[in-house]
Structures are given as structure tokens and as C-alpha cells.
């Protein structure tokens, strides 16, 4: 006779017997199954907050109001509020698609040489002594974010005192991602004063005092132009003072440049601070993005540059640094993506296309400057309480309006206008059809919550 499982009985009814048996077997199986325990409980892996900017984008897209205005996203929009593919990028894309030699093979670890070499010239100038003397090491990166990360990783590994990483000083405020990037690689963070809430301009004295009090050889992160998020830049005279102070303190400059040519419409002017520091003999690094000035946001094209100071062994220093950057790059991404790099390279290496690109840059920067003038003028026409000259004094894609968090919440709730909670707006989100609406909304919330 066949044996029976403990606790099971045989019923005279086949259907009842089968049903009861299956039920009891399932009960037994449930009791015998091991408890499901995750290795990542909530106390070990808490729920992370949503990225504020991408959360703002999500809320904007979900808003059904026909009057909604997106002033949060840091991407250029034309006067019809549409993404603008630069005409010169379309031409470069056509050249690339018709190139019989084009393929999808891996790039070298350091990236596309025809891009990195021209990218260095774009920043430092054609015929720059640093380039001629082979004092520059350049690596293609995953846009500006990847460049900042690679630089942070390099400094965390090699720029130390008594075995500990040097502190990096970030402007207050700065691009929010700067904090995460340096923190994630173990580089300590401090802040230096930058934005003066009273004047809505540069707190130059506070900045100088902080850099003076920082320990010698600290890392100072500087926005080369079109400071994000404030739109406030030092004047050329102030840049010279900053350089002199940093030279005295032996500080290490880390330039982040995402808006060259996009800020003023002039590539040379927007690289002025970087070129001055290099001329003064600083050893420094530069994170460079082609997202904004080429409109290659999703292609993630950028570069990281190390510049050695003038010395007999400067070229050897640059070579050693390049070798270590390659090791870091290999372990992070192996090698960088090719499409956006090829587009930028085609433009940078063709005289006619380069000239057309400069015209495209003037179109973008010019439209933003026009929107600054329009917003300020409409606020002043309305007699909106306060001074609004900072709207045109600031430069680049972003403006710190001076609106409080409560006013930002109200303008979103009442007028469906989206901006970051600190009152930063993307000027590219304004156009001839919505600038008056935005000005009237700002006027209303300032009067209601002043």
C-alpha cells in the first residue's frame, strides 16, 4: 500500500479528496518555505527623495493648464517654446550620415582626438603656449557632469595632504549636482559666499574673505561664465583680484564651463577667466560641456582638461596625469560615446561650419538677452515692488529673481508657472507670447506676499 503524507485522509469522493489534498499540501508548503528576507531593508536603503529639478519637470508635464510655463528646465527653447536643433548641427549630422567611413567602433579611452584637441583650443585659444608646450592633458567625458566627476575622482585619488583629500570650496549657491559629485567620491565640501540677496549681485567681499581664510592649497570650484544658478559673474577686474588672492594662497582652481559662447555670444569673452588663470601660471583643471552651446543635451559630449604650470618637466607631468585619467576613465565607462563627439568635432574642425556655429550661438544668447530686457521692462511698467535691474545685470540661461519659496509656490499654484524653489528661472523658457503673463504673475505674488 502506498504511504500517505502525515495529516492527510482519503475521502470517498474523488473531487473532494483532490481539493482537500491540494489545500493541505499548499499549507504544508507554505509553512516549510523559508522566510523572504531582503538584504536591503529600509534602514539600510531608505527611499531617496526625488531629484528636485526632475520632479519639477514631471509636475509640469502633468499639469493640464493651457497657461502653464516651464521656467525650470535648463535647456534652450526657441520663441515657440520648442527645442531648437542648431542648423549647423543638422549640417554636421548630414555630413556624418553620408560619410562612407563612419562606423560604430569603440573610441580610444581618452576619446575622439579631433574633438579633445579642438576643445582645448576653444578654451585656451589657438596657439596657446600651454598647448604648444604640451602642458595640457585632455579626455573626452560624459558631458560636463562626467567631466566634473572625473576631475573630482582624480583629485580624490591624487590631491591630498597628510593622506587626506583636500577640501573643495563651492560657491553658495552652486549647481546642486556639484555637492553630490564631490561627496560621492569622498572629497570634503565647504562653501564660499557668492550671491548677495540684497543687491542680487556678487558678494565679492564675502567671497574674497572666505578664500583668504580657507587653508592653503584648497580646491576652489569656479564657474567660468554664466554662473548657475544665479547668472551673476565677476567682472574682468574682479577675476584678476580672485586670481591674485588664489595665487597668494596657493589654491587649486577647478573651472566648470557649460556655457561658453552661450552666455555672451562670444566664445573668447566667455573663456576669458580661464585664459587669464592659465596665463598667470596656475595649475588647474577644467570641466567642459557641449550640451548647451551645441544643443547636444542627450548626446553627452564633453571634455576634461588638466593644465600643468610652466616648468621644464610640465609636459612629463601632463603625460603622467593623462595616464591616470585613462585608468580612471577605463574603470568608469571604458570609453566615451561617439555620436555627439563626432558632431562637435566636425563643426570645430571646419572653418565655415565653425563660423556658422558662432552665428547660432549669437542667435541663442541674443534671444535670451532680449527676454531679459522684456521681463525687466514689463515688471517696471507694472510698478512691481522692488528693483529689477538684476534681471538684465545677470547673464546666461538662468536668473535669480529674488522670489521667496512662498512666492514660488504661489505662482505655481495660481498661475501654473514652474521654477525651482529658490526663485531661479530659465530665461530660455520665456518667449514673446508668455513674458507678459509671467511678469503679471510675478507682480501679483510679490504684492500678495511681500
From TrEMBL:
Recorded superkingdom: Eukaryota
GO molecular-function terms, A-Z: L-aspartate:2-oxoglutarate aminotransferase activity; pyridoxal phosphate binding
Sequence segments annotated as region (Disordered): 1-23
EC category name: transferase
Cofactor: pyridoxal 5'-phosphate
Biased composition (Low complexity): 9-23
Record bears the keyword Lipoprotein: no
SUPFAM superfamilies (alphabetical): PLP-dependent transferases
Domain (Aminotransferase class I/classII large): residue spans on this chain: 67-442
Catalytic reactions on record: L-aspartate + 2-oxoglutarate = oxaloacetate + L-glutamate
Subunit structure as annotated in this protein's UniProt entry: Homodimer.
Something else known: In eukaryotes there are cytoplasmic, mitochondrial and chloroplastic isozymes.
Protein name in the entry: Aspartate aminotransferase
